[in-house]
């Protein structure tokens, strides 16, 4: 990672593109990861569309995990 970017940066998954937005499954809400250095800037620009996308990504991941368990 010579450029400071992920090797697949241009083709990264949707979950990575939406970071630092994360889904808190315990409280069923979308949050800004408090460990992100830019979290304060991001909090001001979150849109409803972004929140819905984060929820979809989380739902898809959870469904895939459930299938693995079965």
Q: What topology does this entry show?
A:
Layout (H helix, E strand, L loop, with lengths): L13 H5 L2 E4 L4 E4 L6 H5 L4 H22 L1
Antiparallel strand pairs: 1-2
Account of the protein in words:
Helices cover 46% and strands 11% of the residues. It is globular and about 40 Å long. It is of the alpha+beta class and 70 residues long. It has one domain (9-69). The chain has a two-stranded antiparallel sheet with strand order 1-2.
Strand content: 5-15%
Low-pLDDT residue intervals, each spanning 5 or more residues:
none
Which strand order does the major sheet show? 1-2
Global shape: globular
Number of domains: 1
Instruction: Figure out the total of helices.
Output: 3
Percent range for helical residues?
40-55%
N-to-C terminal Cα separation, in Å? 37 Å
Please tally the β strands and state the result: 2
The helix-strand sequence is HEEHH
Main beta-sheet strand count, sense and barrel state: 2 strands, antiparallel
Structural class per helix/strand content? alpha+beta
Rg over CA atoms, rounded to whole Å, is: 14 Å
Report the average pLDDT across residues. 83
Organism: Thermoproteota archaeon
Pfam families: CxxCxxCC (PF03692)
InterPro entries: Puta_zinc/iron-chelating_dom
Protein name: YkgJ family cysteine cluster protein
């Amino acid at each position: 990672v010579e450029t400071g970017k992920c090797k697949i940066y241009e083709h990264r998954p949707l979950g990575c593109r939406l970071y630092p937005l994360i889904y808190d499954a315990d409280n069923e809400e979308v949050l800004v990861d408090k460990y992100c250095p830019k979290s304060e800037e991001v909090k001001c620009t979150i849109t409803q569309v972004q929140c819905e996308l984060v929820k979809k990504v989380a739902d898809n991941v959870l469904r895939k995990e459930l299938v693995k368990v079965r």
